Fold:
Amino acid sequence: MSATKRKVLITGAAGRIGTELTRRLGDRYDLRLHFNRTVPDQPLVDDYVVANIADYDAIAPAMEGVDSIIHLAGQPSWRAEWADVHEANVQGQFNVYESARKAGVRRILFASTNHVMGMYDRDTAWPIYADQPVRPDSLYGVTKAFGETLGRHYHDRYGMSVINFRIGWFLEKPEDEIARYMWLSPRDFAQLCWRAIESDVGYGTFYAISGNSSRNWDITDSIVRLGYRPEDDADEHMPPKYGHASFNDGQAGS
Structure:
């Protein structure tokens, strides 16, 4: 293993996204994985920690020697009640940022969500740009908006680089009409992550979807500021469309 590789921590590494990123970024970075309730029998890398991010003392040691964090851990359900999203997505988010700051972590990539802007989708108020006022469609979306704002504070106050990704629908292949507009392929997200880690962006919020021809969310900033060059397009995997798909309550998103 090259000594020049950046040390990158992936929190929530047992999930679908974390597993794919581990596979796709393992040759590029020296990875450390974080698990909580689900710990694989055979983790893909030897360097891993088990901790609840809502417990500061438990998660803080994971930050030692880390250059960048891909922060995926948290409550992932847009239907979750406040107690669940508060523990993981508010207290847990603070613990990650604060322990990262004290450990000298250079950059955090935060897995935000399309649900931060979900009411625009409900109202079919497209296209949507990342710099519009937030309109969360759920308490889950509210906590992700909090995470984006917390990152803004840590950038402005402490100089930490923070990049927020508003993730669409992470799937191996698009499955239905909703995915036509919001699909994020594994290889495109892996590219977004490595480009973000290696960019000079201090703070930014970006839509994380593939280069879908029918997309409703603007990815210009992802292309211009991060150098993103999406390789996948949902329309290439779907039959020709007729008319416009309706936004189905936002339940498809991450």
The first strand starts at residue 7 and ends at 11. Confidence is low (pLDDT under 50) at residues 243-254. The domain at 7-236 is CATH 3.40.50.720 (Rossmann fold).
